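Please annotate this fold before class:
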Amino acid sequence: MRRASRTTRGQSTAEYAILIAVVIAAFLGIQILIKNAIQGGVMDRARQIGSRFSPSDTISTVTTTTTAHRREETLPTGETISTSLSDEVTRITVSAEVTEDVRGALFK
């Protein structure tokens, strides 16, 4: 009778080990599926954002202003001499505006 008790106990331990291995394998498989689903959703959102801000849907304005103080002197020979009196200053202003169609799609 003692022998039957040890065999049953060993069999129960082996069954639990197999059950735990199956649960871990299922968990790992589900984890991979969930990760792929999340990555697919993120990539889909990135594509949507990229297409919404395409050059055809965005109006951009670039303004460049250059300011310099110069003195020009014309010589009797007809040659012109230009002298810079201050440093040249360049200001660049950039503005962008999203068209109404895209704005409506962004804030649904």
Summary: Helices lie at 2-52, 100-106.
